[in-house]
């Protein structure tokens, strides 16, 4: 598949990752602020789940459209337009009072994310050589995770000291980083821009590309979505578990939430080194299964703690597994998808994962109305492990098929000695 020709454009990678990190901080700043406001006002799990659903549904529903936009429209125009729109919407959230208006604005904010997410994800492989892809992926993920790490912690501090309006105003400013990145990044794709040379038969390959036609990619995405769907309810349950069951403050809640993100950041760099040594995509997918198992185990272990701060080391380990799996998934997808179809590919993977997470949010919100957080977390961890075990056989079958295909291609490429 096509990557940047010549040397890697690390300045562009830096701009893209910085924009992603700052905008992600704004996303989480707004989401955590709204979650804390709902919990403090006495709203139940269903209200928190409704806001999370509003923040997730556009990423799923709009994926077919935004993926094609990312491939067909100039990436610069998309980043500038979406960044300006998100900034205005987040500023509106700071002054919105009616719950229905808040939910509508959250959905609009997520619609902007549905555009910028595949645009930035597809730009990064076009900026670097294949050998540099794991490092660039780790950098991109690091920036995102720093945003996720600082967003909840900053929200906990600002909400406690200044109320909900100030953090939402700061979030509105953060989206302008996307506008700046759109103006400064030299690498462009979509529209009339081509960052790489044309491949033989590329047009037909791009037109016919479908996720379901690649068994290995399909198995990887299905496994990830299945596990996220079962443990995704933890995102709704966590605020009630930490603040009510364990009696922690808003600041401690932000610290606990950030611990998983810090682990993701560390895991991205640790496993990026391993990814560079794997030329075998099937091997990366198999390693991803083990890392997902680690995430599920940490969720299960978290119910044993008597105090919220003890969740920090557990979440760190779980986040490291999460970060490694993210790097492996992004590297495998970028290697196997034609350059001109990567926007669709990243949007499709994002839609599958976010759709599964949405199911988890809904289930978590409904169950919190009838039972306590601790047994629900046990159920999430056990269900995640069971789903993972159920996917072991399909993944192995896809791995065998992939390795058989690679072997057959190698034999066809080997010249037959003349007699």
UniProtKB/TrEMBL annotation:
Classification via Gene3D superfamilies: MFS general substrate transporter like domains
Chief localization: membrane
Membrane topology (UniProt): Multi-pass membrane protein
Protein's cellular compartments: Cell membrane
InterPro entries on file: MFS_dom, MFS_trans_sf, TM_effector
GO terms for cellular component: plasma membrane
Transmembrane segments: 43-66, 78-94, 100-126, 138-162, 168-185, 216-242, 248-272, 284-308, 314-333, 345-364, 376-395
Keywords assigned by UniProt, alphabetized: Cell membrane, Membrane, Transmembrane, Transmembrane helix, Transport
Name of the protein this chain belongs to: MFS transporter
């Amino acid at each position: 598949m096509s990557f940047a020709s010549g040397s890697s454009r690390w300045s562009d990678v830096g701009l893209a990752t910085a924009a992603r990190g700052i905008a992600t901080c704004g996303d989480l700043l707004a989401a955590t602020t709204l979650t804390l406001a709902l919990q403090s006002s006495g709203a139940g799990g269903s209200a928190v789940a409704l806001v999370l659903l509003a923040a997730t549904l556009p990423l799923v529903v709009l994926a077919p459209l935004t993926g094609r936009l990312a491939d067909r429209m100039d990436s610069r125009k998309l980043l500038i337009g979406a960044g300006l729109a998100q900034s205005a919407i987040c500023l509106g959230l700071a002054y919105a009072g009616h719950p229905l208006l808040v939910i509508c604005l959250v959905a609009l904010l997520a619609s902007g994310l549905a555009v910028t997410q595949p645009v930035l994800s597809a730009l990064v492989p076009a900026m670097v050589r294949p050998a540099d892809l794991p490092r660039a992926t780790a950098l991109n993920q690091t920036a995102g995770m720093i945003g996720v790490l600082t967003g909840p912690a900053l929200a906990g501090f600002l909400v406690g000291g200044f109320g909900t309006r100030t953090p939402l105003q700061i979030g509105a400013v953060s989206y302008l980083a996307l506008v700046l990145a759109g103006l400064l990044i030299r690498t462009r794709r979509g529209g009339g821009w081509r960052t790489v040379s044309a491949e033989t038969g590329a047009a037909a390959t791009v037109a016919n590309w479908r996720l379901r036609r690649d068994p290995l990619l399909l198995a990887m995405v299905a496994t990830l979505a299945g596990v996220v769907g079962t443990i995704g309810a933890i995102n709704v349950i966590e605020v009630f578990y930490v603040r009510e069951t364990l009696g922690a403050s808003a600041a401690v809640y932000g610290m606990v939430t950030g611990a998983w993100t810090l682990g993701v950041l560390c895991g991205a760099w640790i496993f990026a080194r391993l990814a560079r040594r794997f030329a075998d995509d099937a091997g990366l997918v198999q390693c991803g299964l083990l890392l997902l198992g680690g995430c599920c185990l940490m969720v299960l272990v978290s119910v044993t703690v008597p105090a919220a701060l003890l969740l920090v080391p557990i979440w760190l380990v779980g986040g490291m597994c999460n970060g490694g799996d993210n790097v492996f998934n992004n590297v495998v997808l970028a290697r196997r998808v034609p350059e001109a179809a990567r926007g669709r590919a990243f949007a499709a993977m994002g839609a599958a994962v976010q759709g599964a997470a949405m199911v988890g949010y809904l289930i978590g919100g409904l169950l919190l109305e009838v039972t306590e957080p601790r047994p629900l977390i046990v159920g999430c961890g056990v269900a995640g492990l069971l789903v993972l075990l159920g996917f072991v056989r399909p993944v192995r079958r896809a791995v065998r098929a992939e390795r058989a295909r690679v072997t057959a291609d190698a034999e066809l490429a080997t010249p037959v000695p003349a007699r």
